[in-house]
Amino acid sequence: MAERPILVGIIGYGKIGTGTYKTLLDNQDSIDRQVGRPVRVKRLVDVDWSSPRPVPIDIPSEMKATDADEVLTDPEIAIVVECIGGTEPALDFVLKALRSGKSVVTSNKELIARHGKELFDAAAERSLDLMFEGSVGGGIPIVRPLKSCLAGNRISRIMGIVNGTTNFILTRMSQQHVEFQEALAEATRLGYAEPDPTNDVEGLDPAFKLAILASIAFETRVQVDSIYREGITGLGARDMEYAGQLGYAIKLLAIGTEIDEALELRVHPTLLPADHPLAAVSGPFNAIFVRGSSVGEVMFYGQGAGTMPTGSAVVGDIIDVARNIRSGATGRVACTCFEGKHILPIEELETRYYLRLRVADRPGVLAAIATVFGEEGVSLASVLQMDASGESAEIVWLTHTTKERQMQRSLKRISELPDVHEISGCIRAEAEE
Amino acid sequence: MAERPILVGIIGYGKIGTGTYKTLLDNQDSIDRQVGRPVRVKRLVDVDWSSPRPVPIDIPSEMKATDADEVLTDPEIAIVVECIGGTEPALDFVLKALRSGKSVVTSNKELIARHGKELFDAAAERSLDLMFEGSVGGGIPIVRPLKSCLAGNRISRIMGIVNGTTNFILTRMSQQHVEFQEALAEATRLGYAEPDPTNDVEGLDPAFKLAILASIAFETRVQVDSIYREGITGLGARDMEYAGQLGYAIKLLAIGTEIDEALELRVHPTLLPADHPLAAVSGPFNAIFVRGSSVGEVMFYGQGAGTMPTGSAVVGDIIDVARNIRSGATGRVACTCFEGKHILPIEELETRYYLRLRVADRPGVLAAIATVFGEEGVSLASVLQMDASGESAEIVWLTHTTKERQMQRSLKRISELPDVHEISGCIRAEAEE
Prior knowledge:
Two copies of one chain form a homodimer. By secondary structure, chain A is of the alpha/beta class. The first copy, chain A, folds into three domains: about 5-140 and about 305-325, Rossmann fold (3-Layer(aba) Sandwich), CATH 3.40.50.720; about 145-305, Dihydrodipicolinate Reductase, domain 2, CATH 3.30.360; about 345-430, 2-Layer Sandwich (Alpha-Beta Plaits), CATH 3.30.70.260. Chain A is about 35% helix and about 25% strand. The first copy, chain A, has 14 helices and 18 strands. Chain A has helices at about 15-25, 30-35, 70, 90-100, 110-125, 145-150, 165-175, 180-190, 200, 205-215, 235-245, 305-325, 365-375, 405-415; strands at about 5-10, 40-45, 65, 75-80, 105, 130, 155-160, 230, 250-260, 260-275, 285-290, 295-305, 340-345, 350-360, 380-390, 390-400, 400-405, 420-430. In chain A, the strands form two sheets. In chain A, strands 7, 8, 9, 10, 11, 12, 13, 14, 15, 16, 17 and 18 form a twelve-stranded mixed β-sheet that branches. In chain A, strands 3-2-1-4-5-6 form a six-stranded parallel β-sheet, with helices on both faces. In chain A, helix 1 packs across helix 12, helix 4 (about 90-100) runs parallel beside helix 5 and helix 7 (about 165-175) crosses helix 8 (about 180-190). The longest helix of chain A has 21 residues, at about 305-325. The first copy, chain A, is elongated. Chains A and B meet through helix 1, helix 2, helix 6, strand 12 and helix 12 of A and helix 1, helix 2, helix 6, strand 12 and helix 12 of B. Strand 12 (about 295-305) of chain A pairs antiparallel with strand 12 (about 295-305) of chain B.
């Protein structure tokens, strides 16, 4: 292949930068042939070249740089790969790359979720590519399938397990009957959880991903702050156990639904029927369900994070950009947020609920609670009385479909009943009536 | 949108033609905006306009034609969608379209599997697109993910349930404990099986699909005749039952594996551990597992056939071609069969085997069989003796990993033993040792 290579600069040589560079090296011949021109990394930028990398690779010293400008101002470099994460200085770097006429590949979910509009506008202005397949679901193909393969569908729902850390924790809680803190400690020990796990366990990471997926699926720029969000820190091993007895698994789901041109967007723990394909997704795996007007339901499953899986997604994007450069067609797939669909407040949600209450073990308590539910229009599907040990009893309810507003009002009133000690759990349930 | 529309001609207005046209109509505004130019069907061709369609749509009479040339020779039409199936006259039509400078979309698995090289050469000669996402897995995105998202991976394995008819039959046999013929009759009644189900139940349809997937995954043009193939007609309800007792499900799998630059390609019933994600794929659904060097394992799941799901895939391709036309970039992703990897004969296969034998219920029979296995180097993992009723007994074995050649030699010798009445089943097993 005598043709002039397409040159790539990678900014950030941590996990994802390493996975990207290794994937490009490992499969170089095939990639060159698929693109029709050689694709070569010219320069790697990192502020720290001394710390060990997840995969050791010998890098010629002339390729190493510490200043991003050595990539951003190099006129030979056509594709900039942003692998530093976070929004600062990633945003500046990506904007500078686009304004210098370079296409960009990133797997930075926060960057795309928070600054998507500004970035896509900058890319469109110069007909450049801005690709971000790795920002959701690691190596799982989902962005390109939504933007191309399923582009003829009107998407009515997207529902996924998009955070491997919390799915690992929930799987452990469910299978080993341990509490959240113990499962989190194990996740940290095994490297599935960051030293500061807040963004994962509080549901912010899945909210970034839902913002990205929903923006594509519903053709509306979704801000992460408009997504209702609950993490998994309030879940107990008992909830997993009781849910299991009722025939459900508990998963942290990111759910986007279009209802009459409006969007319902939420991240929270959810009861899923045990035979639902997402219920079987365990450990650090991710899976995303999509319901489209023509395709029906499709699911995408795989490793949602990690050095090499994310590297796979980033390199897929690099290949796609390189093909566009070769064909003179960068910018051929642009942002598709044409609509400004209204986002429904969580109070409008209609779903089923699992409730766990600790109450005095005394006649009349159940009746008092049931009366409140009745008055508020909440209809109960089943009730389990558990663990009646001496003074208190644990009661688990599953409701029929109810409005969130009615449920919240009921819970407030119930929490004020004298014989109710604690509302230990209230978890939304995806369940057929 | 004042720009000149990109015009489409659809040849064949049966199930897939209808699903395609309806999907284009239903989501027209969104498709136009995603492409950046209007995409319109100018003409639909079918030899018979009188019979009822799966979805009734009013079609203006000036759009209806009975002669394919009304599409193929129309200089305004830029995209030809082939929806007639089979190879004659589809091959002629597609070649004529490409030679007339029109890009082509098809979901015709037999056409792509049998004539891929000729067709891709014709497309490449004029830098045109030939897209075929719907040829495998109906609406499930798999072709484009392999050619783009996962293009940076070296694929070592692709394994899928790619025929909904047989998966429906096997699910029924397993869940309702009915025999093949009864399950087939039900599949026919429900429209899941064709009046002549030979291509499905004999495994030819999945072999076409494997030829397509393997050609992409392994960068080698795979001929369907080089794929080892066994259908499901020899399976009994008892096999499903015994497999279940051993912790397995039986699925008709299409499996392609690369081993030291050579390919192992096969379609046959397979025992899968009950906790494998493919084991849970039931009814008419399809799912495809892919193992890549960077991505690890990913799975794609959905409805593998049908009017609207296949229409979804075809329209996704139309949108992609239209974007290429708009960007002057048709032909940007061409055929990737750069290699000519050797295809291993089935005798070289190494796997585990499930065996079901009917033997005389007499001392020494087991010993005689075990002696043959021992002499042929076949090691047995477990044995179940079932149904010893009077004169004969049924024995079920699961072997350790064995070469196909040794297994065939053993079975030949065992079938000649005087007390062996019948070898009722021999099914390969995907199972960890």
